[in-house]
Amino acid sequence: MRWQLTLLCVLATATPASALTMSFDFGNNARLTNLPGWNDVFHASGSPTDTLFVVNDSNGNPVPGVTLVETDPFYIVGQPSQGGSESPSGAAAGFPVDATDDYYFGHTGAFGGGDDNPTGGFKLTGLNQSLAYDFTFFSSRTGVNDNRETAFSVTGANNGSGVTATSNNNSEVLPINGIMPDTNGEISIVVSAGANNDNGNGFYYINLMQVSAIPEPATGLLLALAGGFAAFGRRHR
Length: 237
Description:
This protein is α+β, with helices and mostly antiparallel strands. The chain has helices spanning 2-13, 97-100, 217-235; strands at 20-27, 38-42, 51-52, 67-72, 104-106, 119-125, 133-138, 150-155, 159-164, 174-179, 187-193, 204-206, 208-213. The protein has a single domain (20-215), classed as Sandwich (Jelly Rolls), CATH 2.60.120. It starts with a helix and ends with a helix.
């Protein structure tokens, strides 16, 4: 009985670790998301933000050591436009319009003075290798009549991928969960046209990304303690 009381005391006093969330708005420097906890990734014509050296969490506090580095440029000849969703709803309802309306985009073949740009990519560095990271992507281009499906691939020590219906999207988000950083503490993201994309230029988009670290070390500790206490109890019955 004593071990059961001990376990109850541990359960009562332990506090699960809260998730760390980082939010990124990709797009036009005329439409920044000037809200606490949002990180703006943008470029003026021909001048991409190669590295975001300070990344803030959802409370507006810098996350020590974490940076976002553009590794494969998107379209950079001119400013990205603001043709995304102005009415986020459904799973995207909680996102600010300043983040859903603008985007980074790329294309297959030459376009608008830019060379063939079949993929765009970036990576997060300085991540905690003991944590798993859940990703949520939102991709939207409104006012179109074709299929601009966008594919996302996320790679660290493991990998995940998925596609999202970008055309006229107001509500769909793409979750890719449980990605662990590699041995360098990095996770890479690649964006491209999906297999069903039938746009003549193969346009693909990223409007925003949210990244949540789900540590929950207290949960693991409690499970271990529970198992140990249960085994102890069985031996002493």
